[in-house]
Amino acid sequence: YSFRSQSTISTPESYKYNGITYPKDSYSNVPSSILDKLDRNLHLMPSHPISILRQIVENHFNDYKALIPSSAIVSVKQNFDELGFPLNHPGRSLTDSYYLNKEYMLRTHTSSHEIESYKKGLNKWLLSADVFRRDEIDSSHYPVFHQMEGTHIWLNSELNQLNELNKNLENQLKNIPIIIEDETKISNSNPFQSHHNPIYTEQIIKHLKNSLNSLIFKLFGHHTKSDGEPLRVRWIEAYFPFTTPSYEVEVFWQGEWLELLGCGVVMQKTLDQSGVSDKSGWAFGLGLERLSMVLFSIPDIRLFWTSDSRFLSQFKQGEITTFQPYSKFPPCYKDMSFWLPQTDENRHESTSSSAGGKTLNPMTSQKQFHENDYCEIVRDVVGDLIESVTLIDEFTHPKTNRKSKCYRLNYRHMDRNLSNEEVNELQNKVQARVVEEMGIEMR
Ligand code: FA5
Ligand code: MG
């Protein structure tokens, strides 16, 4: 792991948003194409699938306060520091996150709003927003997606009510065709918090599980009835710096376990920082795209961003309906083979302190190849016409030790045919940019 900078991708001269200017520095890596996404607010367009799902979850948890944060720009403090992310956590890297500058970034998760929400004195709330992560390119990854955070906390003096609350929830869950496979256990690797009364922590965990299981049944219930097979839901152990114990929930869907959300018992330190040391409870963070793709049968994550009415007109507020694909236009792929930059990185690496995680120098080992940097340039040139970028070959020259990679760029327009000339032109542009900005050499 190293804290590496991406290449000089086309970023605006300076970052201005809502009348605030964010001076650029060596961390700045938000391309204009991503900034343009800040005002799209898919989660607020009434009959967009992301928003439909948000509203269904909000209706399910109808006594929770629904919050919408005002801006995707948060401080690094909010997104990472206050939540206990160690300085060398990979999520902080410039290859994984978007920074306006050293201090401000695009939130990578809705947990970045936990503390400000607890500070409002709210005990039960849901918060939905767009989140931003640099990532690979395929049908389920897009640099912007949506999450919903949810929490329920109680005054410690009220935790004795939990037993009763759980009984009620368990009664509601009684006769539903859902198989819950609980693979979690109490263990040292996923510990309770030392100052918590374990009897109450167990009740909090039960309440978390009951609440989320009932949501999952609400969302998937109608699917299970149609094919007669009971839905399988799995709880597994997880790790997050801001919860312990921590869990992930998966559903068995079309032959695979699909991760829906992360959750856990809120770290007391988070509540202390929010001025509510006398409370404890649970939190979860749910991926809205991932759930929508399953529930509405949406095959490609780019479809959420289309303005084509053949997509948008299919959905109605309050209803989960199956997407009817309109004619898919043919793909067109082009391969690109290149030699990675010849670096003296081994020498550099051993003298640099970045590996220790203390000095975060983004310029260190700038020439190292990272796939996210490559994908970012592809997205910057090609926009949503790129469907996937796949590594299809990799090899090291036996004599020179030079490394080579071959990527297949799969182009497809959602709404029309692409001509071969058009794709060639795009491919050439990508090629010119990656050669110039990543120091790689075409083969
Ligand atoms: C988080 O982001 C934590 N903040 C969740 C959390 C909240 C834990 C509160 C504890 C308490 P994670 O990176 O696993 O965790 O993302 C949470 C969910 O977002 C995933 O389960 C998945 O549904 C969705 N998600 C994550 N990455 C992507 C992606 N690249 N594309 C689409 N959905 C994603
Ligand atoms: Mg996860």
Condensed summary:
With 443 residues, the chain is an alpha+beta fold. Helix content is 28%, strand content 25%.
Features:
443 residues, alpha+beta, BirA Bifunctional Protein, domain 2, Alpha-Beta Plaits, 2 domains, 8-stranded mixed β-sheet, 12 helices, disordered N terminus, binds magnesium ion, transit peptide, aa-tRNA-synth_II
What does this structure look like?
The chain has 12 helices and 16 strands. The protein has 443 residues and is an alpha+beta fold. Strand 14 and strand 15 form a beta hairpin.
Supply the CATH superfamily name of the largest domain.
Bira Bifunctional Protein, Domain 2
Share of residues in helices: 25-40%
- Strand/helix succession: EEHHEEHEHEEHEHEEEHEHHEHHEEHE
Which topology of the largest domain does CATH recognise? BirA Bifunctional Protein, domain 2
Which spans of ≥5 residues are poorly predicted at pLDDT below 50? 1-7, 345-366
Total strands: 16
N/C terminus separation? 28 Å
User: Structural class of the helix and strand makeup?
Assistant: alpha+beta
Principal-axis shape? globular
- Characterize the biggest β-sheet: 8 strands, mixed
Rg from Cα: 23 Å
Count up the domains: 2
CATH architecture of the largest domain: 2-Layer Sandwich
